[in-house]
């Protein structure tokens, strides 16, 4: 151990010469990262991970991005993963480092994002003694992860670290925590390459059963009012799966709707796409879901924001559900044809079966169904009226629309992250995504403060791309410290704040359900976002009226560095269309003129 | 659409797991986190050489919930196999109880008589007390304990159910 090897000399598979070389646990860990193809990790140092940070210092293969809070490290890793298809990697210290990461871990768990999070831990002899910065990390994260490990034996370190990557990325992806006691990273540990043997107990099924797909396609061929309902699982299945979905849609001629997490798996500007479904989905998507006779759910999980009132969800339709995770099937909605498998493989097999089976869906019936859908589309449920007088107040939908149009004019590859709330829904409704992996949002957990660190992760992964965080002023303050990370790495992230001085979605629900008693939802004592940006070495901009909006957006897009754009929007704007909690898809509210008709049941109130 | 069956049924779930630290907490945490019932639970190593333990859980819920329990448990990384024995078919489900009865005179004699009828063994005897050991189906243990109640029942310790499929099949 007297001669500490330089990691740069320890390229993978040079074991022939290195057989006698003794590595420290920290060095073994870094070598696993290199073997796993990791080139960047997000983290924050501390006592229990000092040996790992020391090993990081002495190598160049893995780049470390220093965040300003551990929650942000996980969100950045999530966005890195979501935008590249690779596993996002996090390194944090014990105790508060690990507990701060928990929100990000649950976020990744809910949205099926592959993340491996290495947490420091006090040395094995100190575990259980209430040592300084000790927390029961594996206990705390057991329900916050897909799986977690505490490495107590140096001989297990390399195997466990490799296995963590395998579990994070395979099957239904998710976060995995590896808790590393300090003596394990300091002491010697053997390196072993990733095992090729199948895991003894963990065997996810990605290949669908042909018989189930045969039955599904037979039902699709009989369909008169079919609908594809696609989710984040299609995006997780990779760009090839999204491309295959495109072929399946062209071949069948069926309409397609998508969940929030699925946006971009099929071009949202295409005629066959009906927009997002669910609580703030389009009229045509929700009415089609309600009225279809065959519903084909691909990589989606019937979330309560999608289904609305369950007993009225797509009544009477024949339901096909493909998901890689057997527990998602029949969890919320009983289906007629369950298919367990990777969405990409299911789609490929559906394409084969569509060609193999005789007949096609009744073209007259399909044409009639499209006619009905076009009539619904004619309602223009996302329509809003923007007063174009230069001094007029900016409506948030208009701001997002113009942001989209002007971003497209640049011709740049564009990634959009969001925080959580009204602005997130307006972004989902009015920004268009013609390619997968470019829409980064917190769906399942609904984590305010996700968007800014997510933009960091996306910009690190795609240094030349245009990365925009469409934010609300309340959400973005939850992780505003990441402006420091943005400054340190000179990330040209654009933070586009739809500032209505309210926690808008909270305010909207208070208006609809609680007699407009805006309890604690006003954003009092806001910072001056321009000066805030400047103090973090970024450019600050502001638009207060329609006449200023385009100029600010153009200036923001033209700026080579980071920008915080404070877009002052109408304070009382509500997000429409909407399905009130506890209502059915065919009971949508299209706009404020229908607000008086809101009759949310006591049961619905509970569902908020 | 299939209508959902709302009747509550009881089920014995047997789970073969990797015998590693925290595995029981994973299973129990899943039950409490998702609001599933645990009526009884047993766990012990069954395959020392392969580091496997078996967990038996008696639970109840609608058929849909029982199916979810099986699927959710199956997601856990250290789980090899999970089976709903109630659904698989005929199975043997047994538990053991140690029952302490403190009494004298007529009640003491009566307790001993009932114990014989139930084929319970007195594994500890003093002038004023018995500890009976009794093995059998949960209902049999329940009725034995009920009968002991007026005869000086002082304390009960039960193992929870261990279960296995009848015939040559395994989980």
Automatic annotation (TrEMBL), chain A:
InterPro entries: Acetolactate_synth_lsu (IPR012846), AHAS_TPP (IPR039368), DHS-like_NAD/FAD-binding_dom (IPR029035), THDP-binding (IPR029061), Thiamin_PyroP_enz_cen_dom (IPR012000), Thiamin_PyroP_enz_TPP-bd_dom (IPR012001), TPP_enz (IPR045229), TPP_enzyme_TPP-bd (IPR011766). Residues 420-566 form the Thiamine pyrophosphate enzyme TPP-binding domain. Coiled coil: none annotated. Pathway: Amino-acid biosynthesis; L-isoleucine biosynthesis; L-isoleucine from 2-oxobutanoate: step 1/4; Amino-acid biosynthesis; L-valine biosynthesis; L-valine from pyruvate: step 1/4. GO terms for cellular component: acetolactate synthase complex. It holds the Pfam family TPP_enzyme_N. Keywords: Amino-acid biosynthesis, Branched-chain amino acid biosynthesis, Magnesium, Metal-binding, Thiamine pyrophosphate, Transferase. CDD domains: TPP_AHAS, TPP_PYR_POX_like. Its EC number is 2.2.1.6. GO terms for molecular function: acetolactate synthase activity; flavin adenine dinucleotide binding; magnesium ion binding; thiamine pyrophosphate binding. This is Acetolactate synthase. It comes from Gluconacetobacter liquefaciens. The gene is ilvB.
From TrEMBL, chain B:
SUPFAM superfamilies: ACT-like. The keyword Iron-sulfur does not apply. GO terms for cellular component: cytosol. One of its GO terms (biological process) is L-valine biosynthetic process. Its EC number is 2.2.1.6. The keyword Protease does not apply. Pathway: Amino-acid biosynthesis; L-valine biosynthesis; L-valine from pyruvate: step 1/4; Amino-acid biosynthesis; L-isoleucine biosynthesis; L-isoleucine from 2-oxobutanoate: step 1/4. One of its GO terms (molecular function) is acetolactate synthase activity. Catalyzes the conversion of 2 pyruvate molecules into acetolactate in the first common step of the biosynthetic pathway of the branched-amino acids such as leucine, isoleucine, and valine. Dimer of large and small chains. Belongs to the acetolactate synthase small subunit family. This is Acetolactate synthase small subunit. The lineage of its organism: Bacteria, Pseudomonadati, Pseudomonadota, Alphaproteobacteria, Acetobacterales.
